[in-house]
Design goal:
DNA polymerase, domain 1; mainly alpha; single chain; globular; two-stranded antiparallel ribbon; 14 helices; about 60% helix; 2 domains; hpI Integrase, Chain A
C-alpha cells in the first residue's frame, strides 16, 4: 500500500494502473488499450469540470453526480450502451486499484450502475462455412502466410480459442501434444485440447514459418517479422468471407461461437464446454443453448408437414 506525502498526479496514478493491468493482472492488449483510453478521457473531462488536472485527493472527493455527468457526456457523443458499460467498468477497475494501492476512499463509484444491455446471442458460422474459411485461408498468397492464416482459423474453430489467445502462443509452446496451456481473460489458465487437424495445421505453419528476429518468441508473425496482431486476421477473414458469400457475421469470434454451438449440437456437456471456452460464468455458455434451441425450431418449421 502506497501513501506518499504529496498527492500523486493523475498521470502517475494512470501509469501505475496500466502497469498493474499489464504486469499483475496480465490483461489483454485489447483491455489495456480500451481502459487506458477511457481513463484518459476521464482525465480530460475532470480537467474541464474542476478547472485543473485531478490528483488523488480530487479523485477521492468525486461524487455520483460527477460520474453521471461524465457518462452523460459520453452518451451525447454517440456512445452505445455497451461502450458506456465498458467505460464505467474501466473507471471502477481504476478506482479499485487506487483503493488497494493508495488507500483512496470513494463510495460514489460503487453506487454507479451501467446501462442494462439486451443479451446478444452468438452468431456462429455453420460447419460448412467454417471449413470453407479454413480451406480458403490455406490456398492463397505466400505459402507461409497461407499456412499461418489456416492455422489461426483452425485454432479458433477446432479449439475454441479467442483470437487474442491464439495470437499469444509462443514458440516455447511447441511441439504440440494433445493439449496446450492457454492464458485466457484475467490471466486465468486452462488446457485447450488439440484435435489432430489442429496439430497438423500448426505443424504445417511451423515448417514454413520464416526465422524470427533475435529473441522473438511469438509463434504467429506478421509480414514485417513482428508479432501478429488481431487486425490483419480480421481483415483477411472478412476478405475470404465476402469471396465465399458468408456475409458480415463470419468473424474470428464467429468461429469460436461455431466451436461451442457445434459441440452442443453434438450432445456436448455444457459444463465441459464452459471449461473449454474459459468462461468464468456458466451464464455466458448458456447463451449457446438458446442458439441451439433456435436452430432446432427453425429446422422443425422447415421440415414438419404441418408447420
Amino acid at each position: 500500500m502506497e501513501n506518499p506525502a504529496s498527492s500523486p498526479s493523475f498521470d502517475e496514478l494512470a501509469a501505475h494502473f496500466i502497469r498493474h493491468l499489464r504486469a499483475e493482472k496480465r490483461s489483454s492488449a485489447y483491455t489495456i488499450r480500451n481502459y487506458q483510453a477511457a481513463i484518459e478521457r476521464f482525465d480530460e473531462f475532470l480537467a474541464g469540470r474542476l478547472g485543473r488536472r485531478a490528483d488523488l485527493k480530487a479523485l477521492e472527493r468525486l461524487e455520483v453526480v460527477d460520474f453521471r455527468s461524465f457518462l452523460s457526456m459520453r452518451r451525447e457523443e454517440g456512445l452505445s450502451a455497451a461502450s458506456l458499460k465498458l467505460e464505467l467498468s474501466a473507471l471502477k477497475t481504476f478506482y479499485r486499484h487506487l483503493r488497494k494501492r493508495f488507500s483512496l476512499a470513494n463510495d460514489a463509484i460503487g453506487a454507479m450502475r451501467g446501462p442494462k444491455l439486451k443479451p446478444k446471442l452468438p452468431r456462429p458460422v455453420d460447419a460448412a462455412g467454417a471449413q470453407e474459411l479454413i480451406a480458403a485461408a490455406g490456398a492463397g498468397r505466400e505459402p507461409w502466410i497461407s499456412a499461418r492464416d489456416a492455422a489461426i482459423f483452425t485454432l479458433l474453430y477446432g479449439a475454441g480459442l479467442r483470437i487474442s489467445e491464439a495470437l499469444s502462443l509462443k514458440m516455447s509452446d511447441a511441439p504440440f501434444g494433445e493439449a496446450v496451456k492457454i492464458r485466457g481473460k484475467g490471466g486465468k489458465s486452462r488446457l485447450a485440447p488439440l484435435l489432430p487437424a489442429v496439430r497438423q495445421a500448426l505443424e504445417r505453419y511451423l515448417e514454413l514459418r520464416p526465422p524470427a528476429s533475435s529473441g522473438e518468441e511469438a509463434m504467429f508473425l506478421s509480414v514485417r517479422n513482428k508479432p501478429l496482431g488481431p487486425r490483419p486476421v480480421q481483415i483477411e477473414m472478412k476478405r475470404h468471407a465476402r469471396a465465399l458469400g458468408l456475409g458480415e457475421n463470419a468473424t474470428p469470434h464467429a468461429l469460436r461461437h461455431a466451436f461451442a454451438t457445434h459441440l452442443l449440437q453434438a450432445g456436448g456437456d455444457i459444463r465441459a464446454i464452459q471449461e473449454l471456452l474459459g468462461h468464468a460464468s456458466i451464464a455466458a455458455t448458456q447463451r449457446y443453448t438458446k442458439v441451439n434451441e433456435d436452430a432446432l425450431l427453425s429446422s422443425y418449421r422447415r421440415a414438419h408437414p404441418r408447420a
